[in-house]
Amino acid sequence: MPQPEGAALEAVRARREELRARYLREGQDRPVTIARGIHHIAFVCRDVEETIRFHQEFLGFPLVEIVENRDYRGSTHFFFDIGHGNLLGFFDFPGHDHPPFAETVGGVQHLALSVGDEQYESARKALDEAGVEYAGPDRGVEESLYLHDPNGVPMELYRERLGVFDGTMIVENVD
């Protein structure tokens, strides 16, 4: 994807600083969120078993529920525990063709999941042994592994504590 350069890049950076000055609130000035957290995020999958095996057996997210979708007969809705009361959900829609993943407005750029050092190294070893492609360390980003699940869902295994970004705490940490 082409990136802005020259004057266009400087205009984007200036606009970001305008937004930062206008909207970013810190400390006592920051409003309290109305949300308790992410209950679940749901993606569409091609194959229920393949998705379960990848997320449970490969990444280590326990399957905690599998039911029929209440909005589409025959569709399976299932959830994985991704820690701290958060769930990763999937649906299948039998009989429907789905285009491959595309990074677009309103779509998912990636799902970043906080993992500890031990889980990070374990995942990296499993990815290497299975020949699963990932990015991150090759770009000088040692704390992140970027990969796609079997459905094309872009994921990041981020070796950073919850509430911390690039070494800076940006929201109250729950760890």
- The end-to-end span amounts to 36 Å
Task: Summarize model confidence as the mean pLDDT.
Answer: 89
User: What is the CA-based Rg, rounded?
Assistant: 19 Å
**Strand fraction band?**
15-25%
- Count the strands? 9
Low-pLDDT stretches: none
Principal-axes shape call: globular
SS field, number of helical segments: 3
Instruction: Bin the helical content.
Output: 10-25%
Summarize the biggest pleated sheet: 4 strands, mixed
| Secondary-structure content class | alpha/beta
Q: Which strand order does the major sheet show? A: 1-4-3-2
Oligomerization status of the protein chains: single chain
Order of helices and strands: HEHEEEEHEEEE
Give a structural overview:
- The chain has a four-stranded mixed sheet with strand order 1-4-3-2, with helices on one face. It has a three-stranded mixed sheet with strand order 5-7-6, covered by helices on one side. The protein has a two-stranded antiparallel sheet with strand order 8-9.
- The model has no long low-confidence stretch (mean pLDDT 89).
- The chain has helices spanning 6-23, 48-58, 117-130, and strands at 40-44, 63-68, 76-81, 87-91, 111-114, 144-148, 154-158, 164-165, 168-169.
- The two termini are 36 Å apart.
- The chain is 25% helix and 23% strand.
- The protein is of the alpha/beta class.
- It is globular and about 50 Å long.
- The longest helix is centred in the N-terminal third of the chain and has 18 residues, at 6-23.
- It is built from three helices and nine strands, in the order αβαββββαββββ.
